[in-house]
Amino acid sequence: MLTVNINSVLNLTSIIFFIGLIGILLNRKNILIIIMSIELLLLAVNLNFAALSIYLDDMVGQIFVLFILTIAATESAIGLAIVTVFYRLKRSIQLEPIKKRALTKI
User: Fold this and answer.
1) 77-96, pLDDT tens digit by residue?
2) CB-based contact 83:31 (threshold 8 Å)
3) Residue 18 — very low, low, confident or very high, per pLDDT cuts 50/70/90?
4) Is 49 within 8 Å of 61 (Cβ atoms)?
5) Residue 13 CB burial class (10 angstroms; 0-12, 13-18, ≥19)
6) Are 29 and 60 contacting, i.e. CB atoms less than 8 angstroms apart?
7) 49 CB-contact burial (10 Å; exposed 0-12 / middle 13-18 / buried 19+)
8) Rounded CA gap, 67 and 32, in Å?
């Protein structure tokens, strides 16, 4: 059986988390990349919960993973539905028209 050191798993999850964070911070124009970056953040958190749950021999982390997966699935479905409707209306998924429109209504 293959055993993996907990430090290597935590390093992997932190790398995945920071890739998602950099994806959100550096790309503010394309909403699909932002949604994928949020999914990377949630994946890193889930992997961290699962690894620590196995390492500490506790089921609570795995229960949190199930809750986070359901929230991530609904977030993706709702986000992609909004993007689809916006694309049908404006023929673009760039965030600049959304920001300009939101600022003019305030």
Assistant:
1) 888 888 888 788 877 777 66
2) yes
3) very high
4) yes
5) buried
6) no
7) buried
8) 23
* Section 8-18 average pLDDT: 94
**Amino acid at residue number 95:** L
Please give the structure tokens belonging to residue 100: 């300009």
**Cβ neighbour number for residue 29 with a 10 Å cutoff:** 12
Q: Three-state SS for 69?
A: helix
* Predicted TM-score (pTM) of this structure: 0.77
The reported pLDDT for the residue numbered 49 is: 92
Tell me the three state secondary structure of residue 94. strand
Residue with tokens 């229960």: 63
| 3 state DSSP class of 77 | helix
**Which domains are delineated in the chain?**
6-105 (1.10.287.3510)
Q: Backbone phi, then psi, for 49, in 5-degree steps?
A: -60, -45
